[in-house]
Amino acid sequence: MLDFTKVMSAAVLAATTAGAAMAQESRTFEVSLPLGPESHQAVGVHKFGEELERLSEGRLTIRPQYDNALGAEREVVEGMGFGLIDMGITSTGPMGGFVNDFLLFDLPYIFTTPEAAYGFLDGEHGDALAAKLESEAGVKILGWMENGFRHNTNNVRPLNGPEDLAGIRHRTQESRVQVDTWTALGANASPMAWTEVFTALQQGVMDSQENPVPTIYDVKFYDVQRYLNLTKHVYSPAPLMMGAQLFNSLSPEDQALVMEAAAIAVPVQREASQRMEQELIDELERLGMTVTRPDLEPFRERVQPVIEQWKDTVGAELVEAAQASGS
Ligand code: MLT
C-alpha cells in the first residue's frame, strides 16, 4: 500500500529542489540601447548589469546591444512584448502607439524641472503607467531612467522664437502629438524612426530634429546640424524594460534581484544624465554649434491648443497631475 506521507514528502522535496534549481539558474539578458556605450543611457544599463551580477553572485548578467543593433525603438518594444527581445531602454516616443496615456510625455511644456518629473514617475502615476504598459503591450518597466529635456537642432537658422521655424523640415518621433506640436510651432513636421534620422539630416531630407543634449552629442549631430536651440519643450523618460513574459518566468527571488538592481541604477543614471546635459552644451559649442537660449514663453503659448486637443485622449486627470507636479 502507498505510504501517503512518504509520497507527499517526496513531492515536496522534488518541488523544493526544482525551485532551488530555478532560483540558481544562470542567464544573460540582451539589452537594446538606441545610443552608444558612452551615452547617458549606457551609464544606467551598465550600472544595472553590474548590480545584477553582484546581487546574483555572477549568475545573472547582461549583454548590451548599442546603437539600435536589435532594431528601432518601436520594434524593440514590440519585440519585448512578443518575447523576442529580452530587455531594452528606449525613449517613450513610440509608446503612445501602444498606450494612449504615454502620449503625456509628448505634450509640450508639461514638466518644468527634472525633480517634478521624478516625483511624478516615482509615485502612483509612474506605477499606473507601468501597469498599463505591462497589461497592454506585455512589457515591464523596471525603472524610470531618462533621456532628459529635449531641445531643437537645425541646419537653417537659430530659433529666437517659433516664427523662425517657418519652412523648416522637422523630424519628429513616431507620435501624432509631436507632429501636431511642431506643426503648431510653424515647422513642416513629419515622423521618422530614430534609425534614419542621422542620414536624413546629412542628406538634407530633414533640416531639423529634437533630442536631449547628451543624445545630440552621442550621435554626433554636431557634424550635420549647425544650431542648437535650447527649447526644453518636453521631458523625455527612458524606461529600462524587460519583456513581461520573461520577467514572469524568473523565480520570485530573481525577479526581486532584477528590481533591486534597477532601483540602484536609476538615480545613478539620472545623475549622469543631468551632469552630461550641463557639461556637453559647452562641448557642443566648442565643436562648432551655435547655441541659442530663446525666451520659451512664445513657444508655450503656441502649443496650448495642442495640449487642449489631446488632453482627453491622454486622460485629463493625468495631464493635470503632471502639470501640478512642479508646484
Ligand atoms: C528619438 O529621437 O527617436 C529618441 O530620443 C532616440 C533615443 O531614445 O535616444
TrEMBL record:
Signal sequence segment: 1-23
UniProt entry tagged with the keyword Signal: yes
GO biological process: transmembrane transport
Domain of life: Bacteria
A UniProt-annotated Pfam family: DctP
Location(s) in or outside the cell: Periplasm
Name by which UniProt lists this protein: ABC transporter substrate-binding protein
Organism: Cereibacter changlensis JA139
Higher taxonomy: Bacteria, Pseudomonadati, Pseudomonadota, Alphaproteobacteria, Rhodobacterales
